[in-house]
Amino acid sequence: MDDRSPEKRRLQLIWGVALVAAGLGVFYRIPQVMPQVETIEYFQSSSVVIRIFFYIMGAMLVYGGGSKLFKYFPRPDGK
């Protein structure tokens, strides 16, 4: 059982939802933003690496928010 106050638990729930939303927003925006990034001459040669790191950043945001959400809701077996 979580011994934190209800206010802190609620804040963690909100933060988890915000992280998941930000991660999904990153996934949504990558195809729209990458053509603009590729127009910058300095980044043209490394556009694949930049795209990969954007996807990694989105995955980390979704994973972090998801872990907070899973911790917020107790499992049915009580553990």
Explain what you see.
The protein is mostly helical and 79 residues long. The protein has a domain of 45 residues. Helix content is 75%, strand content 0%. It is built from two helices and no strands. Helix 1 runs antiparallel to helix 2. The longest helix has 33 residues. It is elongated and about 55 Å long. The protein starts with 5 loop residues before the first helix and ends in a 7-residue tail after the last helix.
How many H/I helices?
2
Determine Rg (CA atoms, Å).
17 Å
Give the terminus-to-terminus CA distance: 8 Å
Instruction: Give the number of DSSP strands.
Output: 0
Structural class: mainly alpha
Q: What proportion of the residues is helical, as a percent range?
A: over 70%
Uncertain stretches of 5 or more adjacent residues: none
H-E order: HH
Overall shape? elongated
Q: Report the β-strand fraction as a percent range.
A: under 5%
Q: What does the main sheet amount to?
A: none
- The chain-level mean pLDDT equals 90
Topology:
Blueprint: H1 6-38, H2 47-72
Helix pairs in contact: 1-2
Task: For this entry, give a set of tags.
single chain; 79 residues; mainly alpha; 2 helices; 75% helix; 0% strand; elongated
How do you describe this structure in short?
It contains two helices and no strands. With 79 residues, it is mainly α.
